TrEMBL record:
Gene3D superfamilies for the chain: 3.10.620.30
InterPro entries: Papain-like_cys_pep_sf, Transglutaminase-like
Positions of transmembrane segments: none
Transglutaminase-like domain span: 36-137
Residues making up the signal peptide according to the UniProt record: none
Identification of the protein by name: Transglutaminase
Organism: Streptomyces cirratus
Superkingdom to which the source organism belongs: Bacteria
Length: 200
């Protein structure tokens, strides 16, 4: 699939905002520690940041945590979030070190095609490595084995077109408005499941 930048200027994918708050002290502190641990290499840092978010911030659907986070710094502070929130945190960590990172989405369903939902993931563009590569920091569990691989995509959920699932090709610089509104306006995760968009 060809990924399509929402903005032609790649600098849009380095921006900070209220959600991707990569100037927040906690985001910077976390990024600094990961940068030091990775030896100051951009590829190693990107992989370390990915694995940090994937593995140390439990997906609240797996952990049972009812809290809803949406701001990157809050995701890191509470170590909690759904796929969208975890993606916000990873994008913030990548942008902190000047690595262009985008938000992207899939429409997924249950195995019978019911209960569609909008799943959030990210795309990364490392200098000197060509184009964008999608990564899914959702968190692994039995049946889910997402990996950091910039050559051969290994996402948490490959789409099943026969069930109406969709890979959306657009790379967003900021969270999609519908998903972000649902995150911000939900008091708990059950309410969030009801409010999240089912498609773009």
């Amino acid at each position: 699939m060809e990924l399509i930048q929402e903005h032609a200027d790649v600098r849009a994918y380095l921006a900070a905002d209220e959600t991707i708050d990569h100037r927040h002290p906690l985001v910077r502190e976390t990024a600094d520690a990961l940068w030091t641990a990775s030896g100051g290499d951009a590829y190693a840092y990107a992989e370390a940041a990915y694995e940090f978010v994937r593995d140390t911030v439990p997906h609240s659907g797996d952990s049972g945590d009812m809290r809803v986070t949406w701001r990157a710094s809050d995701v890191l502070a509470t170590r909690n979030g759904i796929c969208h929130a975890k993606s916000h945190a990873l994008v913030a960590l990548l942008r902190t070190r000047g690595l262009p990172a985008a938000l992207c989405y899939q429409r997924l369903t249950e195995d019978d095609g019911s209960q569609p939902l909008l799943h959030g993931l990210i795309a990364l563009r490392l200098p000197g490595r060509g184009g964008w590569a999608r990564l899914d920091p959702r968190g692994n569990k039995p049946g889910v084995n997402a990996r950091f691989d910039l050559e051969r995509e290994q996402l948490a959920f490959p789409v099943r077109p026969e069930l109406g699932e969709v890979d959306y090709p657009t790379l967003y610089a900021a969270p999609h408005a519908g998903a972000l509104t649902a995150l911000r306006e939900s008091a708990d995760r059950p309410e969030l499941w009801r409010k999240l968009p089912t498609a773009l």
